[in-house]
Design brief:
mainly alpha, about 220 residues, 9 helices, single chain
């Protein structure tokens, strides 16, 4: 997609963005009664948003399952996490003057606002669904999934060490890009292909668990 760049700020877009975030906050209060929303944001949402993980990746909750399954609270608030990601993308696109792209992200955010609304209207049902989902995931191979990701992570770490430049990687982000194709090939060979669109971001997330051995990285971004 070629973004259309405009010099003027889109006031309608800005107003719609604020409206989505305001409604989302109201729904979050219904979904999480008695919980400080600011604390919830810092603990549940901020770690993902700080890593600039985009909304398209976050819509697939299985990609967020690494060594452990998300707990019920995470699953119930998952729609808001996706919404925040798309809103962040919209704000960044707007700052660049890419108004058409910003509207595209807000349309996605609006869809997820509807999901948040549904959760707020039926919290009791959502609790049951979340618990059942966790139980079924565990029964249907939660351990196997964890083992798969552990194997993939170990291969990523091996590649990071093997392909390390003489003076070390400039950053984990650079390393994740450089080994991405190798990891995709490895995943295909193992019968569970990684998404070509999201593999780099998945690898980058794993590198947070890699001990910064001497000379491996020049610095961490």
């Amino acid at each position: 997609m070629h973004a259309v760049v405009r010099d003027v700020k889109d006031e309608a877009l800005d107003g719609y963005l604020k409206s989505i975030l305001k409604k989302n906050e109201a729904y979050l209060k219904k979904i999480n009664p008695g919980v400080d929303i600011n604390v919830l944001y810092d603990q549940l949402f901020k770690p993902f948003l700080d890593d600039e993980i985009d909304g398209d990746l976050l819509t697939n909750i299985e990609l967020l399952m690494d060594d452990t399954l998300p707990d019920e609270r995470f699953i119930i608030n998952h729609p808001s996490l996706v919404l925040f990601a798309y809103c962040n993308q919209a704000m960044k696109a707007q700052e660049k003057g890419e108004i058409d792209a910003a509207w595209k992200f807000l349309i996605e955010a609006s869809y997820w606002l509807g999901m948040v609304n549904a959760t707020s209207v039926m919290p009791a049902i959502q609790e049951v669904v979340a618990k059942n989902a966790r139980s079924e995931n565990a029964k249907k191979g939660g351990g196997a999934r964890a083992q798969k990701y552990e194997t993939y992570k170990e291969e990523a770490f091996r590649l990071i060490r093997e392909k390390k430049p003489e003076n070390g990687w400039k950053s984990p982000r650079q390393a994740s890009f450089k080994i991405c194709d190798d990891m995709i090939a490895f995943s295909v060979k193992n019968g569970q292909p990684m998404s070509e669109q999201q593999a780099q971001k998945t690898i980058y997330g794993w590198l947070g668990d890699l001990k910064d051995e001497e000379g491996l990285f020049n610095k961490r971004n």
